[in-house]
Design brief:
The structure holds two protein chains of two kinds.
Chain A (H helix, E strand, L loop, with lengths): L1 H11 L9 E6 L4 E6 L10 E5 L5 E6 L5 E4 L7 E6 L5 E6 L1 H4 L9 E2 L8 E5 L8 E5 L3 H23 L3 H28 L1
Antiparallel strand pairs in A: 1-2, 2-5, 3-4, 3-6, 6-7, 8-10, 9-10
Chain B lengths: L9 H20 L6 H14 L3 E4 L2 E4 L3 H8 L3 H16 L7 H19 L8 H28 L5 H33 L7
Antiparallel strand pairs in B: 1-2
Helix pairs in contact in B: 1-4, 1-5, 2-4, 3-4, 3-5, 3-6, 4-5, 5-6, 6-7
The chains are: A alpha+beta, B mainly alpha.
Amino acid sequence: MILFALMATTFTMDTAMAHRVIAFASYDGENVTVEGYFPGGAPIKQGEIKVEDSTGKIVATGKTDQKGIFSFRPHGIPPLTIYVEAGPGHLAKTVIDPDLSLKGETMPGAVPATEENPANMVSQHHEKAGCGEWTGYHHPQLSQILGAIRGIREDVRELKKEQEKVHTRDILGGIGYILGIMGIWAFMKVRRDHGS
Amino acid sequence: MHISEGILPAWTLGSGALLALPGLYIGFKRLTPPKMPETALLTAGFFVASLIHVPIGPSNAHLLLNGLVGIILGWRAMPAIFIALSLQTILFQFGGLTTLGVNCVTMGFPAIAAFLACSRFISVDHPTRSAISGGIGAGLAVLASGILTALFLSTAGEGFFLASKLLLTAHMPIAAIEGIVTGFIIKGLLKIKPEVLTR
């Protein structure tokens, strides 16, 4: 009776909000956007954010907003490790490497950023700088490409949220495992007791 | 109240596992075939209850039911909670495999404490007293889980008093709900199937 009541409560919920913290980070060439959420999509509001570069130096800290989002302008030597904490004992970690995000390539026809040409800024890790400088380059068609990438990243994020949800089949599967484990244990015990 | 991976130092994880082992040994020893069905049902109940979340601030608080599981199962609550936590880790990545011992201690020890404290007050002849003592035991078990969690988190550099305050504040409503629900369940069981509680 208790089990049935619990299952009815869980199944009637739109999303079984889960006890795991998930972080998703994307880089649009200018800012890194971090989204913290629970499986099922519920945002982590006022979650603590800490960002470290590859040397362990803290390059950004802050809190997520009401939508679970935190943005910052990246600096330091990549890859960056982003920690999202939602209360004591609940921590998620994700790593972002802009070299992989933008393939580390210099865009054809790119020119250095100047005051006369501030549009279509692209940030790219400049290896020759040696100290993790994030330099800017312009490209006239880059904003279209970045817009498309942003759209794809949002789709990936939504797909990831959907995947992370706790579904009814998972709950039923877990209950099945419990009954199975107990059944096997009981079988082994009875066999052992009859044998002795 | 699950502690995730990557927060606690290795020595804390090892200590948690070592602390959980005696409780698991005693619990598995007492897990006889006639007791399997009720143990399985309550394990499933604990497994499902942890999925019911209430958002509180940046985090979520979830039902524990460790008090009810402890009062009904006694020492068998440890293996029940261990199996439920293992499956939650494997299936849903709640908590973690390395933190299994620690999570067993934080949720299992208060369950057994509730059993040891309340079982002497539970009898068929006094259903109201049984319900009240069981309800108080279950509520305190939730709060004790919060304190134990804060204690383990303090080994990772989190302030014990701050973590305790946050966890206790978040779980006060849960403790109250579980206390009331457990009280009613105990009263009902004493009427319908008293042999579950009196052994």
